[in-house]
Structure formats: structure tokens, C-alpha cells
Amino acid sequence: MSRRAEFEAEHPEVHVLSADQAGRVDLVMGAAGWLGDEEQVTTCVSLGGESSTVMRVELQELRGGWRTAVLKQSLPWLRRDESVAMPADRWRGEHAFYAAVARVPEAAARMPRLMAANEARCLLLLEDFRGASSLTSVYGGGSVGEGAAEALGGFLRALRYGTRGGQDAEFAHGGMKTLSHRLLFEAPFDSSGQGGNGFGPDGPAPAGDALDAIEPGLGDAAATLRSDRTFRGAHSELGSRFLDAGACLVHGAFHPANWLLLPSGDVRVVDPQYGGWGDPEFDLGTALAHLLLARQPEEVVATFLSAATGVEEAGPEGPADAEEVETGVDRPLVARYAGAEIVRRLLGGAQLPLEAEGGFRRGLLETARTAVLSGRLEVLET
After folding, report:
1. Among residues 169, 220, 246, 294, which one has the fewest Cβ atoms lying within 10 Å of its Cβ?
2. What is the pLDDT of residues 44-55, one digit of tens each?
3. Which residues are bridge partners to 261 per DSSP?
4. Which fold has domain 133-380?
């Protein structure tokens, strides 16, 4: 029996939804109390989520009014491949993240509004941004832009200051953090194909010949790094730190796939399913890694870092000439997390569609090695 069939047998009350069954979506939303008296679901469009079912639902009233929303269902398997297990607690952690961010206005303004939630059916109903597109275009030569970079950095700064020191039991969220640890600190080093479902969305790392097909010489560079005991020790130590509780709320997957560009040019941050308590440097390092992988202009990287690490100004009750307080950002730790993310994306199963000349990946891999070992990354030292 398949994983899905077993789940449906054990949980007959949970309807597994899909965008091609608008009638079932209408019934479920009605049962949850999410429809008006004269409102019905007329259309569902898949938004392409790989790990969860994510769809845009159009709701129409008999009198002619209409609205849209995003419906997300997170079940204990990978949507792209139902044979792959996903943590059963991820819905709860994502719901808690939205609830916590709602208390931090500057960060909440950059995320969808949580309109409703239904734990029994693992459902979230979220604000829809029609016409928005993810910023994954940057991997193919596009630019994040300085305005978006400043907004994204500002989001992290607000999240750091707005949630530090407020750990909540709701964010234990061990399943997703354990999965994230495997993806980041274990999967890039298993090219045997034996990682199986334990590596979730990424799968095991490509073998040397597959890496050479991506960039000549990358297979040998990967073999050297994978056998480097000094590097592996430092990398493992960083992984152990990652699993600790941390100082504030972090998004957990802060990269272009989860950055939406609105038609207005503004940006929004989505999909905090890996969110929980951690080092603020983790989100910073992840974003920095992707800006480097996407070969973003120096001014874009500098703008992002300035906005994200900027100091906190004195509040209205302080004296007019009060000094700014320390940022609380450990730059060497940012560099180490950035290095780990670069290694994951260059050697792991989650390969990115990078447009780069020969030697780029090998050069960046060496930069990542130095970052993990020494906490040094040139863009953080300017």
C-alpha cells in the first residue's frame, strides 16, 4: 500500500486536495467555514509547490462578487514524489510562524496574511498575490535589484529584532529542522545513491561523473572536499550548532524560490515551512549564498547586507542623541552558513539552473570551503 493510501485509510476525515478537483475543494472549504453564504469555489489553479499542495482558489458570489486566496495543504509526503516522507509536524510549525510574525508589523508586511487555518485538514488559507513571480529568474542572469534587496534585508532585520529572546514551545518543530540538517550537512556528501527518502526533497548528491557533466573538473573538486577531514569536521560542528535552539525566529529557507516579485516591483517572502528558532545568521548566510550563486552585482549584495545587518536605532523614549545599539550579527557565522549552503547547492541533489562560465562552480566551492573553515567571506569584509 502506498504512503498516501495508508494515510487516507488512517485519516478518512482528511480530504487530500488537488487543483483539478474544484468541487472537493469547495466542499472542504465550506465544511471549514471559509465560504460565505452565497459563495463557492469556481476555479483552482496549481501554483507548483513541490513539497506541499499549493493552489490559487477563485471564490465567486451568486451576486457577482469574487475574490482569490491561496490554499496550502501540507501532508506527510513530498507532493512531487509521494513515496518520500515529510515530517508530519510541518503544518503546525508553519502556522505558528505566521502567527508569530503577525506580531512583528515590519516583517508581517513582507509576508502573506494568514486568513484562516484548519489543523484537522492540515490547511492554511493565505493572502494571494496575483501576477507575482518568484525571483528564481536571478539564476539565469536576472537581478534582484537594489530595492528588492533592501526590502529583503529589512525583513530579516525586523524578524531578528522582533522575535529575539521570545522562544515558544510551538516552535519545537523538530521534524523540519532535522530534515533541514540532513539536506544541508549530510546529503552533499552522500553520492552513493543510498540516501533515499532520508534526504527528502533533495535526494542524494550527484556522483562525480554527473558533476563533471555540469562543469568539467567539478567531480574531482567534490571528491577532494568530501575527503577533507578538516573541512568535514568544521562543517559537522556547524551542523551541531544549527540544531541548537538559537536566538530568534528564522525563516529557514530564505532564498529566491521563496521571494516573490509583485507587479508593483515590491517583494514578499513566502513558504516558512522550515521556520523555527535558530541563529539569525542562518537566514543571512543562506540568502548571501544564493546572491553569490546567482552572481548578483556587488551593489545588490552590499544593499542587502546593509539592510539586514543594520543597527537598531534608539526608540522614541530614548534621548534624541542616543547612540545606535549593536547589530548582534556574527559575521564569521554568516560566512560559515553561507559556505555550507553553497556546498549544498553545488554538490547536493538540489542543483540550481546557474548560468556561469567554466570554472565558476569550482572557484565558488573553494570560496565556500574557506568560509566554513575560517569564517571569512570577502563580501562581508567590505
Report:
1. 169
2. 999 988 889 999
3. 133, 267
4. Aminoglycoside 3'-phosphotransferase; Chain: A, domain 2 (3.90.1200)
